[in-house]
Structure prediction request, 162 residues.
Amino acid sequence: MLRIAQVLKSNGTEGELLISFFDIGPEDIDLQEPVFIEFDGLPVPFYFESFTQRGNNRALVRLTGIHSLKDADELAGRAIYADYFEDESVGPDLIGWTVIDEQHIGIVGFVSGYEDIPGNLCIWVRRPDGNEVLLPLHQDLVQWMDASSKQISLIIPEGLLD
Prediction:
């Protein structure tokens, strides 16, 4: 699943939510398909009951089962996922990019491919010694990306490069 948005805050007392989108526009959302929010590590499906676009990357929404301020407040800060977007729209653009781990070793290698593990997009990185290592490409681990120099800086947890 692809992380598409985040709940910013509740809105009003009827369970409406203000959400902000990542890398897609509100117009790209299929209102007939479910979106997912994690609870206790498991994706829970929700459908849109209402959807009003607010600017270029925000929307005021109402989700099934969320009908009170208390329910809406429980979702504040949570990520929203969808499974109908192709991760490949992100993937091929990074092949050949330099991967940097500034905290430990500097240049790690070059992105050579992708591994689409459900809920966890990973990149294959070819190291200077010719070996490849699989690294998670999670938003929390990306420090910065520079398209002009084709570089991506990751926070790489201890042990993943061994």
Observations:
- The helical segments are 69-75.
- Confidence is low (pLDDT under 50) at residues 87-92.
- The chain has two domains: 2-85, 88-154.
